[in-house]
Amino acid sequence: MDCFIGIDLGSTTTKAMILDENLGTLGKGITNSRSNYETATSVAKQEAVISARLTLFQRELEARGLDNIGGDVFLDRLEQSFRLEQFLEQLEDLHQTCFNYISGPRVAGMEKPISETLSETIRRIATEAAKMYEPGARRKSDFFRDIAGSRFMDIGEKLCKQAKLPFDILLNIYDKSIIEVENRPPSGDLQRKFEAALDRVAPVMLPVAARLEEIRQALLAALGIVINEVYVVGTGYGRVTLPFPKEHIRSEILCHGLGAHMMYPGTRTVLDIGGQDTKGIQIDDAGIVENFQMNDRCAAGCGRYLGYIADEMNMGVHELGPLALKAKKKVRINSTCTVFAGAELRDRLALGEERSDILGGLHRAIVLRAMSIISRSGGISNEFTFTGGVANNLSAVRELKKLVVENYGDMTINIDPNSIYTGALGAAAFARRSANGEN
Amino acid sequence: MKKTAPREAIKELSMLKQKEMIASNYEKLTSAPQTGARVVSTYVPGNLNELIMCFDMLNNLPEINAIQNGMRKKSGGMILEAEKRGHSEDVCTYVKSDIGYMAKGAIAPNGKPLPSPDLLLLSYTGCFTFMKWFELLRDEYGCETVMLQVPYEGDGKVSKNMRDYVVKQLKQEVIPALERVSGVKFDIDRLRENLARSAKAEDDFVWIMQSAKNTPSPIDAYFGGVYYIGPIFTAFRGTEDAIDYYKLLRGEIEQRIALGKGPITPEGDLGEEKYRLVVEGPPNWTSFRDFWKMFYDEGAVVVASTYTKVGGVYDYDGFRHDPSRPLESLAEYCLGCYTNRNLPERVKMIETYMDEYNADGFLTNSIKSCNSFSAGQLLMMREIEKRTGKPAAFVESDLVDPRYFSASNIKNRLESYFQMIDQKRRAGGSTRAA
Amino acid sequence: MQMRGSLPSSPNAAPYGNTGKIMSDKKFDTTEVIFEYCRELFEDIDFTAAREWKDKKAERKVVGYMPVYVPREIIHAGGMMALGVLGGGENMEVIHGDAYYQSYICRIPRSTIELSITGRLDFVDAMLFPSICDVIRNLSGMWKLMKPETYVRYFDVPQNYRDDLGGVYYVNELKELRSGLEEMGGVRITDEALRRSIAVYNENRQLVNAVYDFRARTPWKAPSPEVYLLMRAGMVLPVEEHSELMRAYLAAAEAQERPMRDNCRIVLQGSFCEQPPLNLVKSIEMAGCYIVDDDFMLVTRWLLDDVPLAGDPLENLSAAFLHHSVETAAKYEPVAAEKGKFLINMVRSRAAEGVIFAAPSFCDPALLDRPMLANAIDKENIPNIAFKYAENSGQMQPIREQAGAFADSIKLWSGI
C-alpha cells in the first residue's frame, strides 16, 4: 500500500510518522537523536513501521471479525512483547559487541573473569527485562540506551565488586560498545519477532490461544502487505543534515503549523516548546502559516533549560513538573538564562526556599517566556494548541492555561498526548502533497 | 601573499574602479606622515566630506575600518582585546573592534599603519554611542576635537531650530576647528563646487538604487547595495571619482536591465528571482558572504534596504546636496540620515519601499550592537505587516562580533520564511496584500 | 481648537492640591512611618497617588517622563503633575513588553511598555522621553505609534554648552515644549507661573540636597534604602508633598538614635536610568558599604544650584543646564581633562573611600562611560569595583559577596 512518511529530527528526539493515502495514521515512532542523525532517522522510521504493522494487524483482525478477541489489551500485550523481543535482540548484540572489546593491555590476564562477569550481567538484565515489559509496567524510557545503560551500571558494578574486578574496565567496554549498538538499527526481521511475541502472549490469553491460528494468519497477512514509501519529507532542528534532497525538506514551522491543524482543525495559534527552541506560530483555517516567531539566539526557557535544572537538582526531567505542582508559595524566578539558572537556584536554596516552590517559579518563568513569544507572533485570538516535549509537563501546562486566560480570555486550549509527533505529522502530510505534485 | 585562492569572483569594471579608489585612499592616509597631509577622523552618518575637502584634509572613518576588519575576520580578536581592557560584553562591537584595532597598531588593509588623526570631528548623528565612542577615541589620541550635535528628528521632521543649530555649529565650531588644524582658510566657493559634484553623483546613485523597481531587479539593494553606497557614504562624496564610479555602474546596470539579468552574486548572475524583499538593519560583516549566500541560493533578492540610507537618504524625499545653500544643505543632510529619523518615519519609509518596489516580504536583520537601529524593530515589523499584509521575518546577528552569528539559526529562520511566502502564494493569495 | 489668547492662565500659587496625607496628618513623625509610606508608593505600580491627584479636578493633567532629566518646572507651571516612570520594577511580570524587545536590550523599556499595555499608564496625558540613549529615544517613536492620542515628545538637550549655540537651541526647545504642553492641557504657561514653579523646585532640590548631605554626614541615621525610597516618592507625588515628606524625614531621622556600623563609605555610580531592585541597595549596605552618594533619579538633582527667579525663566533654566548641571554618561564632556572630575569631586567632598559602578545590563551610556570613569579614578587611587544588574535581578549573593569583599579590602587598606 502507498504511504507517506514524515520525519522530525529534533535536537533530543527523532520522530517518524507514516500516513496512508487518506491521511490516516498508520504508525508513529520515536527514538533519541544521538549524534548520528542518519541512524536516528532510520530507527525512528523502523519504529513507525512496527507501529504501522500493528495498525495493519488490527485492521486485518477487524476485517476477519477477530477484533473482539482480547481487544486493545491483546494488541497492547503483543506490542510490549514485541518490544521485549527487540530489547533482547539488542541486548545480545551488546553482549557480542562487548566481547570484541575485551582485549588490550588493560584487561590482560583478566579476560576470563571479565567475560564471565559481562555475560552474567547481560543474563541478569535479560531476566529482569521480562518484568519491564509486562502489562502496566512503567519504564523510565523506551530507548535501549537508557534502559540497558542504567541496569548495566547497577548490576555490573555489583558483580564486579563481588568478583573484585575494577568496574571502570567493564564500563569502558560498555561505553565503546553501546555507541556501536545504538548506531546499528535493530534487525528488520519483524516477522520472527512478531511471531515470537504472539507465541509468548497466547498462553496467557485464553481467547487468543483458542483462535491462535486464525490470528496468526491475520498477522501474517498484515506483515505481508507491501508498504510502499511513496514520499518522505524531513523536518526539524537537524534537518539540514537529513539524508534527503532539498525538495524533501520542509521547515519545522510549516510542519508544526500543518500538523497542529490536522490534529485540531480549529487551531489558529500553535506554541511549540522543544529542546532547543520555542516557536509561536499563527496559522489560517487551512493550516497555512501566517506568522511565526522563535526565541532569539539563546535557548532560555526551552526544554534544555529544564534539563539543566534537573541536573542541578539531581532529578529526572520528568520529575520536575510533578514536584512543581506541589508548590505552596509563589517564588519569583527572574532569570530563564541557562547560564544563570544554576546560580539563581543555589541562591534560592541557600535562602531556605522549598524545592517545590522554586520549581513552581521556574516553570512560571519558562511559560512567561513562551507567552512573550506568542505575543510577539501576534497573540491568541482563537483556538490554541500547545505542542512539544514541554507540553507533557503538567506544571508548565497549568501555568500556561492560567496565563492564556489572564491575557487573552477564555480560549480553547488543545494539548494532545501525542503532541510530540506534531511536526512529523505535518511533514508526512507534506509528503502526501508533494507526491501529488502539490505543495 | 597567496592564499589557497577562493574561486575568483566575477568583477565588473565598476568594482575594479571602486577597489582602486579605496586602495588609493588608504595609500593617501597611510602616507600622510610623509606627505604632511592632515587627517580628520569622523563617522559615516552625517560625515562632512565636502567640507573636509575644502581644507585639503583626508577623511578616516572608524566604522569603515571596523567593517574591513570584520570582513577580514580580524575583528573577533580585536573585540576580545577591548573586553580584556574593561569594556563590557554588552556594548557596541564597532567601538570595541576599533579600540582593539588601535591597540594592535591600526594596520590598514595595505599593511601600513594608519596615522593618528589630527582632528576628531564628531558628527553626532543618529547614534548615541557615537558620543561615547568619540570620548574614548579622544582619550586615545589626545588630538584636537570638535563636536557637531545633530538633533534627533523626534517629531519626524526638521525644525528651523534644529537646522539653525547645526548651521551655527558648522560656522562657529566646525569650520574654525578645520581651519585651525589644516591652516587652510575656508572658501565657500570651493564647498559649492564639491557639493555640486556630490549632487551629480547622488542623481546616478538614486537611479541605481531605484533600478531595483524592475522585475527582475538588476541589483541586490542590500548585499550589493553595501558596495554601491561605498563612495557616496565615505571619503569620495564630492569627488570626480565618485561621479565616474556611479556613471560606470549605471551603465552596467542599464545593460543588465536590457538583457533582463538579475543581480550579480559572488557566484555569478542570480538565476530565477523568486522573492523580492525589503530589508531593515545593517548586515553582519564577519559572515557577510555566508549570509548573502543564504539569500541567493534561494533566489531571494533584496530590492530596497534601510541600511543603504544610513549615510544619507537621497531617494525617499529627494534630498540632494545643494551648492546654492551650502551649509543649510549640509545640515539637512546630517539631520535626514536614516537613524536620525523617528520610528513612525522609518515605518513610513519602509512601507513606501514595500509598495514601490513590489516586495513580497519584509525582513529585519536585528543587530545586537546597534540599538539605534534595533530598539523598536519588532514593533516596526508588526506595523509593516499590518499596513502591507506582507509576511515579515526577524533574524539576529551582530556587526563585527563573530560570536553573534549563528549560521544554522539564521538559515533555519530564513528557510522557514521563504517557505512560508511560497505556501501563502500557492494558497492563492491568502495574503492580505492589495 | 481653542485660540491661544482665550486660554485660561494657569492657576497660580501652588497649583497643586495634594493627597492631603502628609500636610494634614501628624503621623509622619517617625522614619518607620515615612519609610512604610514610601514603600507603598514604590510598590504601587498602578500609581494610585497620581491618579487620585488627577481625579480631584477634571482639568488636571499628568505628564509622564522617563529618566534622566526633564524640566519639571514647565510641567508644574501648567498646573500639571510630573510623573516619573522608572519601569515596572522587580515585581512586575513582563509578557507583552518582551514581545517588543530583543534579549540584548535592557529591561526598563520592556517593563515600561508592559505598564502601558496593561493599562497602568492610561491616565497619563503626555509622555516625555529624555535624551539618554538610543533605546529610550526610539521608545518615544514607539509610543507615538502605539499611543497616537497621547502627547509624546522626545526631549532633546544640547550637547554644546555655549550660550549662543546650545543655549539658543535649548531655549527654543523649551519654548516648543511649553507650547506643546499648553496645547495639550488647554492652559497658558506664563513666565510668572514658571517663576513660581522654579521656586517650588528650587526648594525641593534644596531639600533633596539636605537629605543627601545628612546621609553623607551620618549615614547610619539615614540608611540608603530609606533615602532611596524617599527620592522614589518624589517621582510619583506632587512636588510640594514630596518636599513636605523630606522635611518630615529629616526631622524624624535627626531625632532618632541608630547604631553606627563599621562600614566603609562608597559612592554608587551608573544607576541613573533603569533602577536596581531595592534588595541591591540593601545588600550593598548590609555587606558593609554606606552609600554616601549615588546617581539615582538624577532629575531631582540634575541642576546643581538654585535657578534664578529674576529674568527670563526659560533662559534661566537653559543657563542652569548648560553651566550648572551634573556630569553624567548622557552628557558630552567637551574637555578631555574634565572627564571623571565630577565623580572625583563627589568622592572627595563626601569623604568616600571607594566607588561601586553598578550599571544595568545592556546600558550603553553607563557601560561605555565606565572604563573612562574608572580610568580617571584609578589615577586618583580611588578603589572601585563594577557589576551589572537588571531591575528584576533575583540573585543578590554575588552582589553581597563583591560588595563585602570590597568593603573588607578598603578597611584593610585604610588600616595600614
If you had to describe this structure to a student in words, what would you say it looks like?
The complex is a heterotrimer of chains A (439), B (434) and C (416). Chain A has helices at residues 37-63, 71-101, 111-132, 144-163, 167-182, 190-201, 206-210, 212-224, 252-263, 303-313, 317-325, 338-350, 355-377, 394-408, 422-435; strands spanning 2-9, 13-19, 25-32, 228-235, 269-273, 278-283, 289-294, 384-387, 413-414. The model of chain A has no long low-confidence stretch (mean pLDDT 88). Chain A is built from 15 helices and nine strands. Chain A has three domains: 1-69 and 211-263 and 424-439, ATPase, nucleotide binding domain (Nucleotidyltransferase, domain 5); 82-182, no CATH class; 265-415, Nucleotidyltransferase, domain 5. With 434 residues, chain B is α/β, with parallel strands linked by helices. In chain B, helix 1 packs antiparallel against helix 11 (240-258), helix 8 (160-182) crosses helix 13 (326-336) and helix 9 packs parallel to helix 11 (240-258). The longest helix of chain B has 23 residues, at 160-182. Chain B is built from 17 helices and ten strands. Chain B folds into two domains: 13-189, Rossmann fold (3-Layer(aba) Sandwich); 192-426, Rossmann fold. In chain C, strands 2-1-3-4 form a four-stranded parallel sheet, sandwiched between helices. The longest helix of chain C has 27 residues, at 191-217. Chain A binds chain B through residues 237, 240, 250-254, 284, 286, 288-294, 296-297, 376, 438-439, and chain B through 378, 385, 391-392, 394, 396, 404, 406, 408-409, 411-413, 415-416, 419-420, 422-424, 426-427, 430.
User: Which structural class matches the secondary elements of chain A?
Assistant: alpha/beta
User: Approximately how much helix is present in the residues of chain A?
Assistant: 55-70%
- Beta content of chain A comes to 5-15%
Low-confidence stretches of chain A: none
